[in-house]
From TrEMBL:
Residues 4-178 form the Cytidyltransferase-like domain. The keyword Ligase does not apply. It catalyses: nicotinate beta-D-ribonucleotide + ATP + H(+) = deamido-NAD(+) + diphosphate. It comes from Methylomicrobium album BG8. This is Probable nicotinate-nucleotide adenylyltransferase. Pathway: Cofactor biosynthesis; NAD(+) biosynthesis; deamido-NAD(+) from nicotinate D-ribonucleotide: step 1/1. Catalyzes the reversible adenylation of nicotinate mononucleotide (NaMN) to nicotinic acid adenine dinucleotide (NaAD). HAMAP family: NaMN_adenylyltr. It comes from the Bacteria. Keywords: ATP-binding, NAD, Nucleotide-binding, Nucleotidyltransferase, Pyridine nucleotide biosynthesis, Transferase.
Length: 207
């Protein structure tokens, strides 16, 4: 099974990294693909450029095993729609179960994503429960798709919805950007190498 973890990563932090390790272990994933977006469809333009967000991700993930940084969204023009990304990954991995991981905050907006129903044609969706955000908006569709045994994800290539609690780390990129703009110290919320990069490139000086 292959894990897919998309994000803006502006910047990457320990909430992301801890989640990647935990889902890799829990589901016995052969690899987790970290996919930074180029043009996020549902939010303002990121503060750091795509190439800087990628460099920070590389610094953060270089010690993780079975993690691949996948640049297909950076290589594509236009909005970084996840349905296009999953369709392209399905082409690369025709026979493997694909697990798209989203935090509960991202899941709560899922029905506003571009062609969202088609996401399930290509992958399962695993919702990682996250502090400050309860993970189940009203939607009859979810009852049809939800499975309660992680083993069901391995039996099908796509199409199931699963909720997975993970260690709760109340860390967000927006809070880190704000701390830096306010000249506060965000150490231990993100890797030192990423923080050094942020300081040396004078990122996030303005909130
Ligand atoms: N602390 C966390 N624990 C679990 N999942 C997280 C955490 N932070 C982010 N995620 C998830 O990682 C994915 C990418 O998130 P993103 O890169 O937007 O980070 P963010 O911290 O949510 O950023 P921002 O604060 O700018 O919105 C999303 O699915 C999000 O829900
Ligand atoms: O495809 C969409 O319409 C879509 C809408 C909102 C978010 N996404 C993707 O979902 C992932 C998490 O989004 P975010 O905003 O929490 O970084 C990231 O890979 C985004 O590109 C995708």
């Amino acid at each position: 099974m292959i894990g897919i973890f998309g994000g803006t990563f502006d910047p990457v932090h320990y909430g992301h990294l801890r989640a990647v390790i935990e889902v890799g272990e829990i589901f016995g994933l052969e690899q987790v693909r970290l996919i930074p977006n180029k043009t996020p469809p549902h939010r303002l333009e990121p503060s750091a450029s795509a190439s800087m967000r990628l460099e920070m991700l590389q610094l953060a993930a270089c010690t993780l095993s079975n993690v691949v940084i996948d640049t297909r969204e950076l290589d594509r023009e236009g909005p970084s729609y996840m349905v296009d990304t999953l369709s392209s990954l399905r082409g690369d991995f025709p026979e493997r179960p694909l697990l798209l991981f989203v935090g509960s905050d991202a899941f709560n907006g899922l029905t506003t994503w571009h062609r969202w129903r088609e996401l399930f044609d290509h992958a399962h969706i695993v919702v990682m429960t996250r502090p400050g955000s309860s993970a189940r908006p009203e939607n009859d569709f979810w009852d049809v798709l939800q499975v309660f045994e992680a083993g069901d994800l391995a039996r099908y290539k796509a199409g199931k919805l699963f909720f997975q609690p993970i260690t709760q780390l109340d860390i967000s990129a927006s809070a880190i950007r704000k701390m830096i703009a306010e000249k506060r110290d965000p150490r231990f919320l993100l890797p030192d190498a990423v923080l050094d990069y942020i300081h040396s490139h004078h990122l996030y000086q303005n909130a």
